[in-house]
Amino acid sequence: xxxxxxxTGGAGFIGSHVVRRFVNNYPNxxxxxxxxxxxxxxxxxxxxxxxKENYTFIKGxxxxxxxxxxxxxxxxxxxxxHLAAESHVDRSISDPLAFVQTNVIGTAxxxxxxxxxxxxxxxxxxxxxxxxxxxxxxxxETGFFYETTAYDPRSPYSASKAGSDHLVMAFYxxxxxxxxxxxxxxNYGPHHFPEKLIPLSINNIIQxxxxxxxxxxxxxxxxxxxxxxxxxxxxxxxxxxxxxxxxIGGHNEWTNxxxxxxxxxxxxxxxxxxxxxxxxxxxxxTDRAGHDLRYAIDAxxxxxxxxxxxxxxxxxxxxxxxDWYLENSEWLKKVTNGEYLKYYEKQYxxxxx
Length: 353
Ligand code: NAD
Ligand code: DAU
Description:
The chain has twelve helices and twelve strands. By secondary structure, it is of the alpha/beta class. It has a domain of 243 residues: NAD(P)-binding Rossmann-like Domain (Rossmann fold), CATH 3.40.50. It starts with a strand and ends in a 5-residue tail after the last helix. The structure holds nicotinamide-adenine-dinucleotide and 2'deoxy-thymidine-5'-diphospho-alpha-D-glucose (DAU). The site of nicotinamide-adenine-dinucleotide (NAD) has 30 residues, from helix 1, helix 4, strand 5 and strand 7.
């Protein structure tokens, strides 16, 4: 079987792992990667597959209607895996409109092109939207997010992702566009941009810089290795039911402070530093505005209906991740260039207690 798949945001963190997986595992599929190459997009993430015959990169914006229409028409696109987004909560607090533009308008643009150009010929077509658990809001100390949990987004980022999910569902109900949505918990792994907690902390430990922990570090996240997320997306794309939502998670909850302590300990050993020396870098800073307390996914539906479970234990994934950053210091140096330093200064300088 062959497919012509448009993957959006394929030069970003998760997108690059999804592109690699589909290009390598499915030589019969043609993969078109549409990415605007914002600060978060990096073609170096795809160096190993860029010359493959079944891969094409297209630089462009998902909000560009003419471009998106043209890509659908010229390449006979039958499947979309939509990952392009503004993805960082802190940036959504300082610049919410950028999130509405890409995450809401961009998703609407892609959906509308699919609707127009598939023109009710839906056999063999699929629009897969990659979303987040943050749309469900914030949990207390107990309980889980289920596919049936009511949406309750609380940051401009999660509200824009919730808006995009609602649009996807609206196109399913109104036009019968074949769609599927997955809502995943926090990812970690190679190529993660160092504005997010784990890669930022790895980078700062390498440089002996303070490790900024928001509030008291008691917020909880459920971490999943990015390659397991790509595996779940593959499973859902091939076996998922039209119109359905699937939660993806690692059953792997950590408070931020415990996670960073573990990271410090592993990196003491890897860097040959005295035991306990990295922990001294931990610095508590002003909390994130509207900081969600806890996310935790119940992924039973995905396990029972489609047979997917994560493959890696957290410590193994964390070790692999740290090793990747230590072996790829050039990548880290390049992405933490001038623009990153300006962002870092703005985000953390005024913030440290
Ligand atoms: P990322 O920020 O690393 O990458 C986003 C990519 O989208 C970049 O390559 C960027 O250049 C591209 N992009 C941004 N705006 C664009 C536009 N207007 N047009 C075209 N391309 C554009 O993000 P990520 O962490 O890889 O997340 C990918 C998707 O997965 C997002 O939709 C995010 O909401 C979702 N998600 C992320 C996580 C996580 O933990 N990172 C968890 C669950 C869901
Ligand atoms: O849950 C899925 C979501 O996970 C994705 O949809 C988002 O795209 C992704 O960015 C991530 O959102 P979070 O806000 O949970 O991730 P982040 O790495 O920014 O923060 C993780 C936790 O660490 C959170 O409680 C805030 C805290 N934190 C973060 C940073 C960057 C700190 O304490 N200090 C920091 O410097």
